[in-house]
Amino acid sequence: MTPASGKSQRKHSKLICLPGQRLCLSDENTVSGQGTYERMGYIYATLAGTVHINEKDNCKFIEVQCAGSQTIVPVAGDIVTARVLQVNQRAAKCSILCIGEHVLEQNYRAILRKEDVRATEKDRVEMYKSFRPGDVILARVLPQTELSCYQLSTAENELGVVIAISSESGPNGPPMVPISWTEMQCPNTLVKEPRKVAKIVPASAVKTEN
Amino acid sequence: MAQSGVVFGSYAPRVNPKELFDRLTTPKTLELEPRPTFIKVGAVSNVKGSAYMEYGNTKVMAQVEPPKEISKNSNRSGTLGLILCSVKYAPFAALDSEVVARKESFMSVALKKALEPVICRHEFANFQLEIKVLIIDDDGCALSTAINCCGAALIEGGIPTYDLLTSSTVCVLNGQEFVNPTADVEDLLRSLPGCDNSSEEHGVLVTASLSGVGQISECFQKGYLLPETLERLCDHSLAINLRMVDTIKHVLVNKVKQHIASQEGEESNGSDEDMENNS
Asked: Is the interface score ipTM higher than 0.90?
C-alpha cells in the first residue's frame, strides 16, 4: 500500500493492513493515531484491520480499526462502566466491566474515593447516600498513582449511578427510576433512595479528555 | 527396524550415532522452503486470541489470555507489561517424561524471549499477558512452529504488535545441513555425546524475525557450530522466515476480509430495509 493510494481511497476505508505495514509518511499534519506507531519518520500499523483517516483541525489522524475486538485495558481518561462491590465511609470498591462500548473479558478492580464522588461540596459527601453495593455506575478513570488499582471519579453530571435496584425489593427487583440528581425511586414500592445519579446523555456529548 | 538394536526416541547417549544417521533420509539439495503449512486463527471459539498451526506433521495450538493485573506483592517497577509463556506437550504426545519437562522449560523461556520484542508492551503497563502453547504433535521444529503460532494468535486477539513474527529451524549434523529437521534428526542431535574433542560440527539454530522492520527477535542456538556455519545457517533460516511471512499474511488478510464481509452483510441488510421504506 503506497501513501498515494491511502489518500485517494480516503472515503472507502477498505484498506486492509497488517501489523508492521508501513502506512504513510509522518509529518506535522499527519498524526499517528490508535492502532499505529511512528518509527523513523513513517507510520506503521500495530493491528490487523482497516485503515481510517480522520481529518480534524487540518490534521490527518491515521487510525487502524481492529478486525474483531481489540484487547485493551483501562487508561486514564476513559469512561468506564463499573459495578459497586463494597461501600465504606471513605471509598467504594468497584469492578470495571466495560471501557466505552468495549466489554472486557477480564474485570479490573478499582476504587472510588469519597472526594471523587462529586465536584461540589466534597466535604459533605456521604458514601452510603451515594452508592450501594450492586449499583452499576459510569465513571472516569483517574491517572493511576497506586500500582494494581484504578481510581475512578464520578465528579461530572454525566457520571454516577445508572442502574440501581432498591434494597427492599431484592436482587430481582425492577431497576429504580431517577427522579433527581440525588434520588432514585422504585417503580413498585415507590420507595425513594439517595444516590449520586448520572444524567444519561449520548456518548458523543460526554467530553473526551484524550 | 528392530534388528538394528537401536531405536529412535530414546535419549541415552549413543555409542554409535553413525548407524542411526545412515537411516535418516538426507536431503540431496538445500531447499529454503517452509514445510506445507496450515494455520487457522481463532481456533478456540471461546477465547479471543487463539491459533492452530500444522507445520508438516508438527501440530501446535496457541492461545492468549486476557491481560491480568499484576498482583500487589510483586514489587515490580517499570512501564512495560509482563509476558508469561507456558509451553506444554499434550499428554498423548508420547515422549520420555523427563525429556518433556526439559523441553517445556527451555521452550517457554525461548518463546518469551521471541515474543517480548514484538508486543507493544507499553500499552499493557502493570499488566501481564499469559500465552499458552500446547504441542499436540512434535515432528521437529516445535519451537519455531510455536513462535509462528503465537504470532498469529496475538494478532488475532487484537493485541498490538510491532510486526509479523516468523520463525524457522535449521540444523547441522555430520556435515549435512537439515532445513526444518524432523523429530528423528532432532533426537539424534540431542543424544550425541556432548564433548568428544572432535571438530565435527553439530547443532541446531532457531531464529525468529520481524520481517517488516528487519529485526531478529530471537536467535536460539544449541550445539557446536563454527562462526561461519552459524552465519550461513542464520541466513538460511531468515530466508525461510521471509517465505513464511506470505503464508501468515494470507491467513490474516483473509481473516480481516471475512470480518469486513460479515459487517457489510449486516449493513446491507439494514440498507435494503431503508430502500423498501423509501419506495
From this structure: no
